[in-house]
């Protein structure tokens, strides 16, 4: 049975590469696409879902913004199970920081140059939010197209979604991006920052073995 994986905003498979899945699963990684100019979120979701073969049952797993994507994909291509790591099940679980972005529309007016790879602002923000103590933080974030990053942040801020009881949520208790106090996760990773799939991969792998047994 196939399990389709989508990593976090700007992140490649490296964040998830240490996770161990049951041997009966075939892991298929879906790479991020660069959004078309003024592309709607629904159209982007459809393009991201093109690789998914619906002729047989499958699972979906998404990390961070990838968790939001797999929930949207599930609406058009329903999976047997949907697992999200370091992500939220509905817009009601957004942090105050993200809610402010949605209310003020600040992400929409931010200049693209802030998101280029030489930007000290972008680097310091990533370090602060994801894992302040990890010196190799940027090794995980290789998709650095400024338009893509700005577009994705806009979509996170404006995302509206009703909680789906099918979704299985795994959160770190030290996550700053999606603080645990706003959610009721199925599983909690102790001392897990937003990068817990990489830094706490053994704990996560045990949980995945239980979910997909």
Pick out the low-confidence regions: none
Side by side, the strands of the main sheet go 2-1-3-4-5-6
Average pLDDT taken over every residue: 85
Outline: globular
Architecture overview:
With 213 residues, the protein is α/β, with parallel strands linked by helices. Helices cover 34% and strands 14% of the residues. The protein contains eight helices and six strands. It has helices at 41-48, 65-76, 96-104, 106-109, 120-130, 146-158, 196-199, 201-211, and strands spanning 2-6, 26-29, 58-63, 81-85, 167-172, 187-189. A six-stranded parallel beta sheet has the order 2-1-3-4-5-6, with helices on both faces. Helix 2 (65-76) links the parallel strand 3 and strand 4 (81-85). Helix 1 packs across helix 2 and helix 3 packs across helix 6. The radius of gyration is 16 Å and the shape is globular. It starts with a strand and ends with a helix.
């Amino acid at each position: 049975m196939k399990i389709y994986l989508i990593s976090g905003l700007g992140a490649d498979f490296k964040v998830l590469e240490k996770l161990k899945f049951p041997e009966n699963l075939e892991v298929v990684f879906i790479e991020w696409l660069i959004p078309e100019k003024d592309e709607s979120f629904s159209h982007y979701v459809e393009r991201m879902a093109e690789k998914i073969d619906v002729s047989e049952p499958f699972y979906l797993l998404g990390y961070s913004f990838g968790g939001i994507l797999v929930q949207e994909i599930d609406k058009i291509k329903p999976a047997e199970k949907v697992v999200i790591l370091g992500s939220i099940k509905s817009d009601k679980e957004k942090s105050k920081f993200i809610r402010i972005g949605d209310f003020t529309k600040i992400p929409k007016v931010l200049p693209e140059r802030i998101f280029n790879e030489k930007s000290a602002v972008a680097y310091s923000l990533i370090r602060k939010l994801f894992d302040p103590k990890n010196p190799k933080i940027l090794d995980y974030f290789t998709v650095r197209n400024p338009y893509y990053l700005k577009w994705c942040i806009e979509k996170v801020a404006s995302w509206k979604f009703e909680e789906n009881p099918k979704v299985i949520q795994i959160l770190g208790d030290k996550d700053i991006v999606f603080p645990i106090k706003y959610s009721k996760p199925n599983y909690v990773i102790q001392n897990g920052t937003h990068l817990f799939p990489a830094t706490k991969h053994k704990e996560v792998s045990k949980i995945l073995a239980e979910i997909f047994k």
